């Protein structure tokens, strides 16, 4: 796997790293709190899973008119996105619970999206979290179809209009992942990442094939067998389901990293980023809508992206409390704390960034 080193001789940066970690740890120690999830995480998991599963069961067993069926499929998409962002995500980081088997169980809910837990952990936990916003290393900012997300990517004439059409393609995120998983896993196998993670390359391919077979058997096979819908109606519902989930998740992820205030640095010729890793995270990440309690609940704290990147082992239910600690410490050391005050501020900033990336 390609490597980058984060090296900085600035004593202020080194001191900041030590102090921000101490201040956050002190908060948990002084309040006698676990850094992991509590009962509220189990409640949320049930709500999100039911939001996905119950509409599916209704569609299977009850005769529903097409209009109501579409609403139920959209609700499934909302639930699917919620499961991915606020249940699976924490569990995959080991932050849902102090118990490993609980994290393993809930991280497996990624199968509801028809994709692989191993692929996700490599792409997200390892590549994205380690090399945040570094082009050529962080797959989240690679050019996606006709969407240019980095100033270091080749610029094409069509990108001039990407701020207009980007959200349509965001809706294709989970759909495309159903196919691109195989190419991604092959890349991981060939680059040596799979073996570095102590996984068997052949077994991961077989597991991925089995996941796809089971997923498509359930999502297409059950409606064909139990419901009165024909194949093309089921196909339309499938597209609506994934478009709903895709546009929600893609937009939330992009508003944390591809906005006006975040950097996308490149390593020098020696493969070095001349910042401490923690400082790099501050520069490449942004919070948004910190006071929007419902949004924070639904997106699993992904609006507190700075806190998530600095402390991904801490459950997101704590981010609203530790965010002021992180911000205060950053400002005391003279570092910028990126934040957009509202959801629409972040969305507008992302659109402006897309527009800039389309012409420069």
Which sequence of SSEs, written as H and E, runs from N to C?
Answer: EHHHHHHHHHHEHEHHHEH
Termini separation comes to 30 Å
Number of separate helices: 15
Task: Give a short account of the largest sheet.
Answer: 2 strands, parallel
Describe the structure.
This protein is an all-alpha fold. It has one domain (5-357). Helices cover 63% and strands 2% of the residues. It has 15 helices and 4 strands. The strands form 2 sheets. It has a two-stranded parallel sheet with strand order 1-2. Strands 3-4 form a two-stranded parallel ribbon. Helix 3 (66-92) packs across helix 10 (231-257) and helix 6 crosses helix 15 (343-357). It is globular, with a radius of gyration of 21 Å. The model has no long low-confidence stretch (mean pLDDT 95).
Short summary of the structure?
The protein is mainly alpha-helical and 360 residues long. The chain contains 15 helices and four strands.
């Amino acid at each position: 796997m390609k490597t980058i080193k984060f090296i900085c001789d600035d004593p202020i940066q080194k001191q900041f790293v030590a102090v921000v970690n101490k201040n956050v740890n002190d908060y948990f120690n002084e309040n006698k709190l676990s850094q992991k999830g509590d009962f509220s995480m189990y409640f949320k998991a049930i709500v999100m899973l039911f939001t996905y599963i119950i509409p599916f069961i209704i569609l299977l067993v009850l005769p529903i008119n097409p209009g109501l069926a579409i609403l139920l499929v959209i609700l499934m998409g909302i639930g699917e996105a919620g499961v991915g962002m606020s249940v699976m995500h924490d569990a995959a980081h080991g932050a849902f619970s102090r118990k490993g088997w609980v994290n393993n169980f809930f991280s497996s809910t990624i199968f509801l999206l028809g994709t692989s837990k191993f692929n996700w952990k490599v792409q997200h936990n390892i590549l994205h979290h380690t090399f945040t916003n570094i082009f050529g290393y962080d797959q989240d900012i690679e050019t996606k179809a006709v969407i240019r997300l980095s100033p270091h990517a080749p610029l094409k004439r069509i990108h001039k209009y990407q701020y207009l059409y980007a959200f349509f393609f965001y809706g294709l995120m989970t759909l495309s992942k159903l196919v691109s998983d195989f190419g991604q896993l092959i890349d991981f196998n060939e680059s040596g990442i799979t073996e570095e993670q102590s996984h068997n390359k052949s077994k991961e391919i077989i597991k991925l094939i089995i996941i796809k077979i089971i997923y498509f058997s359930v999502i297409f096979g059950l409606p064909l067998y139990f419901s009165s819908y024909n194949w093309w109606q089921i196909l339309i519902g499938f597209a609506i389901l994934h478009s709903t989930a895709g546009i929600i998740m893609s937009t939330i992820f992009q508003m944390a990293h591809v906005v006006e205030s975040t950097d996308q640095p490149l390593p020098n010729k020696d493969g070095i980023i001349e910042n401490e890793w923690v400082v790099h995270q501050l520069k490449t990440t942004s919070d948004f809508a910190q006071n929007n309690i419902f949004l924070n609940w639904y997106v699993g704290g992904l609006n507190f992206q700075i806190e998530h990147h600095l402390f991904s082992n801490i459950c997101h239910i704590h981010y609203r409390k530790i965010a002021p600690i992180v911000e205060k410490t950053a400002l005391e050391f003279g570092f910028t704390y990126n934040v957009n005050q509202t959801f629409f501020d972040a969305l507008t900033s992302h659109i402006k960034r897309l527009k800039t990336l389309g012409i420069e």
